[in-house]
Each structure stands twice: as structure tokens, then as C-alpha cells.
Amino acid sequence: MIAKKIIAGTLTIASSFLLVACGSKTAAKPTTQDDAKKSLTALTKDVSELYASTKYEMPAVKLSNAKIATATKQYAKTYKLRGDLSKAKKHTLKVAKKRIATAKAMLAVNTEINTALGDKQVIDAKYNDADLQKAVADLKRDAPKFVKSLDASLKTISSEEAAIKRSMPRSYKD
């Protein structure tokens, strides 16, 4: 009988050690809600790097396609976790998407202006600024300060294009 008690006690102690050893190795896994919050925080940081200030009015000095791609990738990652976000955080996600699109449009307009004017600030004879004017018009609502900063360049492009068209013979205007 004493032998049975010793064996039972030994088994109890051994199983306790086993449970304690296994219990210390397992750590609590973060929930998907925590992942969603972290992802949204990273997205907010990536989006803020696309702009010069927290007012989101002007593009960052070093705005690039790579930075936009990083923010877009983070948006996609966060979008997958949107089910675990509160209503306010879902709104933040929606605003981030719009800000990424606006930054992308700003970069495209800046690139087009730099291409049109080049280093010499003179446009090519066959240049047509219709696409540029449409892109700028689309940006007026979302980035009015940015559009206003482009006024001088846009006027230069429009006036040079008009002057070139007036001076060209009819055969080149088509």
C-alpha cells in the first residue's frame, strides 16, 4: 500500500513538473486586433512620410514612387485586417487610402511639369498640356495649396504652348 502511495505521489509530482515546464514555454499570442492596430499605426506613419507636414497639403520633398509603393503595400496589409478595427479606425484607413492617391497624383503632376519644362524651362513644340490640366483640376479639391504653388509653372506651360501653336504653320498643328 505504501508503494502505491509512493508511485501515485511520484506520478503527481512528475506530471506537475511537466505542466509547469510546458506552461512556461508558451506565450500569449497577440490577437489579430493587436495586429490590426499595429498595422494601422505603421500605415499612418508611411502616409505621413508622403507629405511635407501633418496638414497633408504639400508633398514631401523626397516624394518618390518607392515611398508611395511602401504606403500602398502597408494599406493592403491593413485592409486585410479591417474587420478587427473600430469604426473610427476604419475611417482612418479610408482617409489613408485617399491621401495615398493624392500623393500619387501630386507626384505625377510634378513629374509631368518637370518633363514638360525640362532643365531649360522650355516646352517641346509638340507638347499638349490637356492631360496635365485635367490632373491639376482633379487635385484642386484635395490639395488646393499644392495646386496654387504650381500656378507659375502651369502659366509658363500654357503660354509657351499657345505661342508655339500661333507660330507653327498649319501642317504642324495637326
Description:
- This protein has 174 residues and is an all-alpha fold.
- The radius of gyration is 30 Å and the shape is elongated.
- The chain has helices at residues 2-25, 32-48, 65-80, 87-117, 130-139, 144-149, 151-167, 170-173.
- The mean pLDDT is 82.
Question: Gist?
Answer:
The chain has 174 residues and is mainly α. It contains 8 helices and no strands. The mean pLDDT is 82.
The rough form would be described as elongated
Task: Quote the distance from N terminus to C terminus.
Answer: 110 Å
| Share of β-strand residues | under 5%
- Report the count of strand segments: 0
Order of helices and strands: HHHHHHHH
Assign the structural class, choosing from mainly alpha, mainly beta, alpha/beta, alpha+beta, or little secondary structure: mainly alpha
Helix count equals 8
Task: Compute the CA-based radius of gyration.
Answer: 30 Å
Main β sheet profile:
none
* Helix content percent band: over 70%
Helix-strand layout with pairing:
Blueprint: H1 2-25, H2 32-48, H3 65-80, H4 87-117, H5 130-139, H6 144-149, H7 151-167, H8 170-173
Helix pairs in contact: 2-3, 2-4, 3-4, 4-5
Give short descriptive properties of this protein:
174 residues, mainly alpha, 8 helices, 72% helix, elongated
